[in-house]
Write a structure and sequence with these properties.
4 strands, two-stranded antiparallel ribbon, two-stranded parallel ribbon, 65% helix, 349 residues
Length: 349
């Protein structure tokens, strides 16, 4: 989608626009930390996560383990959401405490590199949906622009024509992709230097090894190798699917700025983001990412305050004549899939 398709009436670029909104948010107290809320969230989330693994041990060598694998995919994603919040310092102002939670949630519990994710995610936040700057829309297994589609060859070209149909099945491999990317980030080198900046590389490597060894050892200790393999397949596939479904509504199908688009911070974040309507259940299921506009404008805002910030941000966007995208969950997926289908049109034509 081109930027001009949604930027009507004409964009007014005033450097003070974001500052005015920020003052309103600050005066409402929405940037203040919520230690009580996060303490309860951490206890409940990690409690469910640990309880799930205890259940795996108690159930033993049974086919009911496949049901537990699905439940653990949900618990694992919820733990990953805690890592996301820690990475944005929504829980604590100090880096050390945030990194401690992030390393535990990411490397130890989930098995992905916290340092790699923070580096990648910060680049996404700086330039969301920008083809050259946002790593989330770079050409890969999926393509996000017609230009990327036209550059594909072989099987990649065949897939690009039909990627909308394969999007959800491909998300079943997202978990494996995240694990592989984490390992590459820790050991990958270019010109004699590590290609991914990371503050605690040795610690991260040790935690990933401990996670992998503990995961495999626990499964083999309580069930047969066949059941252990099937448990891992179901768990990792559904975790990847859940992660993908949580992030897909946020930007896919929204405008993709280029180097020619001169947008201030406010418009860069709002025009490229989409909110998903829903109540407390949707807030929990999507980890607060359904308030994507507010999250991108104020990344360090505690998750519990995003709902309260939404009416302030939406009203301000109306004042400034800035389109504010918000839709239902199913419609958000339809728009994302529609974009993927449109991108492949030059190849089908």
């Amino acid at each position: 989608m081109t930027l001009g398709a949604v930027a009507e009436p004409p964009v007014r670029r005033r450097g003070s626009d974001y500052a005015q909104l920020s003052r309103r948010i600050t005066q409402a107290g929405l940037l203040e930390r919520r230690p009580g809320w996060y303490a309860a969230r951490i206890v409940l989330t990690l409690g469910a996560f640990v309880a799930g693994w205890v259940a795996v041990v108690l159930v033993g060598d049974s086919w009911w383990q496949l049901v537990l694998a699905a439940a653990m995919a949900v618990a694992t994603t919820q733990v990953a959401f805690l890592g996301h919040d820690a990475g944005h310092r929504q829980m604590f102002r100090r880096r050390g405490a945030s990194e401690m939670v992030g390393l535990f949630a990411g490397n130890a519990a989930v098995g992905i590199s916290y340092g790699w994710w923070v580096d990648k995610h910060n680049r996404h936040h700086a330039n969301p949906n920008h083809e050259d700057e946002d790593p989330d829309v770079g050409a890969g297994a999926l393509v996000w622009t017609p230009e990327q589609a036209l550059e594909t060859r072989g099987f990649a070209r065949w897939l690009a024509k039909r990627q909308a149909y394969f999007f959800f099945p491909m998300l079943l491999l997202e978990g494996l992709s995240l694990h592989a990317a984490s390992v590459r980030a820790i050991v990958g080198r270019e010109d004699g230097r590590y290609s991914t900046p990371m503050r605690h590389r040795a610690v991260e490597a040790g935690l990933l090894v401990a996670h992998t060894v503990g995961y495999v050892a626990l499964l083999l200790a309580v069930m047969s190798p066949v059941k252990a393999l099937l448990f891992a397949v179901v768990h990792q596939a559904l975790w990847g699917l859940y992660m993908g479904l949580s992030f897909a509504p946020n930007h896919k199908g929204m405008p993709m700025p280029t180097a020619e688009d001169e947008l201030d911070f406010l418009r860069k974040q709002v025009l490229t983001s989409r909110n998903v309507r829903g109540g407390p259940l949707v807030d929990t299921v999507l980890g607060g990412l359904n308030y994507q506009i507010e999250h991108h404008l104020f990344p360090n805002m505690p998750r519990a305050n995003l709902r309260r910030a939404q009416p302030i941000v939406r009203a301000y966007c109306v004042e400034q004549g800035i389109p504010y995208a918000e839709t239902g969950l199913v419609e958000s997926y339809r728009q994302a899939l529609g974009h993927l289908h449109d991108v492949g049109q030059p190849l089908r034509g």
